[in-house]
Specification:
419 residues, alpha/beta, Urease, subunit C, domain 1, TIM Barrel, 2 domains, 8-stranded mixed β-sheet, 5-stranded parallel β-sheet, 12 helices, 35% helix, binds zinc ion
Length: 419
């Protein structure tokens, strides 16, 4: 077989995403874009006579390509509010999304779930990447989030009300090619919405989950209020995004009863911890450069810090109670720049997840939660070779995830040159 082209990659260790112990002196063999063997380099050999390119990374770790369960590729991640992002023309948003998708891929993310873009931009991005027109991760898309009139992200084009209205909107999105259904179950940063209040009724939510599940699609809901979380549990939503227990008066009251229900339901929670902190980090950088912040900026930073600390503590308690946590960056949204998924993984570890659990939540756990557990998030023979190699040992120090040595997509080594 003279034309068999194989790649053998070696490193001092491998985390395969299964949760099993790390493989020492690891090797992974890629053939025709797929993983053909994984194991230790002493007993893993390429077939006799094959044309093998061997890359030895030395003190490094081979991991599955990361899975970011929450992106908004059409936003710039420079502080531009969603209301303004939505005012851009679709062609500009698609260019922005393509640029971000490339950055995200280069950072080691080979699968991403897009949580809402305007009009058909999300579909075009997914299909364009598939056709090789743009570089980017494998995309799982909802198209547009479904929102009540005036609700959060309704500006992207899928406002729908009433049981008949939301049923029709789900069917429309499925017809356009939605891989899953995203619902804005509470208000959010959208100016005409209230993040502390539920938007849809349980009956409306129930119609959407029934309709999605009947078509074998998953559902995920934006929930920044306790009532929203409760409604989504009543309607059997598969993933609760943000999961913030705030009451209409704006006060945070931890809800052990809802946590218990999340565990019982086996619902995934995507807490999006860094998107707030991103603003803090920007302000800290500004202070470093300018020597000071305005009084308004200082107040803003203190307020964000307080709410962020409350949420980090709550996520620790939820994880401790057995809620299944998934890493999803919510970037590039607000001040969260693209290509910094690692910050969300670090935040989950700050909340109390072990390094191993944090890594699982960003690989196999995330893949399972978005319905691609059979394709992504693990290194196993027969799977597409989406592989990340980082220097050092992320199980000891998650910050080593910043040290990307190489990203392979379907076995192809990505050229990560300057932009
Ligand atoms: Zn989001």
């Amino acid at each position: 077989m003279p034309n068999r082209k194989l790649t053998l990659i070696k490193a001092s260790r491998m985390f395969d995403g299964s949760g099993k112990a790390t493989v020492r002196n690891a090797a992974l063999l890629i053939e025709d874009g797929q993983i053909s063997k994984v194991g230790s380099s002493s007993d893993l050999r390429a077939p006799e006579g094959a044309d093998v390119q061997t890359v030895d990374y030395g003190n490094a770790t081979i991991l599955p390509g990361l899975v970011d369960a929450h992106t908004h590729m059409c936003a710039p991640g420079d502080g531009t509010p969603g209301d303004e992002v939505a005012r851009e023309q679709d062609d500009m948003l698609l260019l922005q999304a393509a640029s971000n998708a490339r950055t995200v891929l280069h950072s080691g993310v080979t699968t991403a779930r897009e949580n809402g873009a305007k009009h058909a931009v999300g579909f075009s991005l997914r299909d364009g990447i598939k056709r090789g027109l743009a570089a980017g991760p494998r995309m799982v898309v909802c198209g547009r989030p479904i929102a009540i009139t005036g609700g959060h992200m309704g500006y992207f084009g899928s406002e729908a009300d009433g049981e008949d209205g939301v049923r029709k909107e789900v069917r429309k999105l499925l017809k356009e090619g939605a891989d899953y259904i995203k619902i804005a179950a509470t208000g959010g940063s959208t100016r005409t919405s209230d993040p502390n209040r539920a938007s849809y009724t349980v009956a409306e939510l129930r119609v959407m989950t029934d309709e999605a599940h009947r078509a074998a699609r998953l559902t995920a809901a934006h929930c920044t209020s306790a009532q929203g979380v409760q409604n989504c549990l009543d309607a059997e939503v598969d993933m609760i995004i943000h999961c913030i227990f705030v009451d209409p008066d704006g006060k945070y009251r931890f809800r052990p009863d809802l946590v218990e229900r999340l565990v019982q339901a086996g619902a995934w929670v995507n807490p999006t911890l860094y998107v707030q902190r991103a603003r803090i980090d920007r302000l800290l950088r500004k202070r470093e450069i300018n020597g000071k912040l305005t009084p308004q900026e200082t107040r803003e930073m203190e307020t964000i810090k307080r709410t962020s600390d409350v949420r980090i503590e709550a996520v620790g308690k939820m994880a401790g109670a057995g809620v299944r946590m998934v890493a999803g960056s919510d970037s590039p949204w607000g001040w969260y720049a693209p290509g910094e998924f690692v910050n969300e993984i670090l935040a989950l570890a700050d909340a109390g997840l072990s390094n191993r659990d944090a890594l699982m939540s960003a690989t196999s756990g995330a893949a399972e939660s978005i319905g691609v557990g059979r394709e992504a998030g693990r290194l196993e023979p027969g799977r597409q070779a989406d592989v990340l190699v980082v220097g050092g040992d992320p199980l000891r120090d998650l910050k080593t995830l910043w040290d990307v040595r190489d990203v392979y997509q379907a076995g192809r080594q990505i050229q990560r040159g300057v932009k």
